[in-house]
Amino acid sequence: MMILDREFYNRPTLEVARDLLGKKLIRRIGGTELSGIIIETEAYCGKEDSACHAHRGQTLRNSVMFGPPGCAYVYFSYGMHYLLNLVTEDEGNPCAVLLRAIEPLLGLTEMKVRRKRHGKELTNGPAKLCQALAIDKFFNGWDLTKGSQLWVENYQRVESQAILSKPRVGIDYACKKDRESLWRFLIKS
Predict the structure, then answer these.
(1) 138 is in which domain, residue-wise?
(2) Does 61 map to a domain?
(3) Quick check: pTM over 0.70?
(4) Domain total for the chain?
(5) Is 87 within the bounds of a domain?
(6) Residue in 24, 6, 50 with CA at minimum distance from that of residue 104
(7) Inter-residue contact 81 to 127 (CB < 8 Å)
(8) Are 105 and 36 a contacting pair, CB within 8 Å?
(9) How far apart are CA 53 and CA 62, in angstroms?
(10) What residues have CB less than 8 Å from 148, skipping those under 6 apart?
(11) How far are the Cα atoms of 15, 96, 116 from residue 119, in angstroms, in the given order?
């Protein structure tokens, strides 16, 4: 087990977003381990990025993004779903990577119970993976480098030719340049 350390997250957000592909997201609940390979991410690059929650400055909601790299930024979206982001870059520079999808490895039965779904529908979206892994507001500000309850480990390396870059989704409010930036990364299937 090689837990990703703070140095991994304290790099340019676009690099971290690409390098998270192939890593293993792990959630331990009691003695049960749920995990999956990260297969899709989106980068949010601070105050200059009009799609980023921190674009207009620090608020109570986004304050975790201004903290140390390697922490979880979990927020409630549309009054319905939790979404998991991993804080990147230097403290004070509010950047993060949204985890959009994982390919389940361990704990499939528990994930199916939580999601009431199976197959591709299980964890193929940011809200779905949070529901499947029981990730909620409790983890907002969580130190992912501790290796306790929620963390990310090295798992497999994904070569650059196996990675697709596409525009981010669900950011209609952002300026055109930011809507068109190819900051969503996924493993070619």
Answers:
(1) 6-187
(2) yes
(3) yes
(4) 1
(5) yes
(6) 24
(7) yes
(8) yes
(9) 6
(10) 28
(11) 30, 28, 11
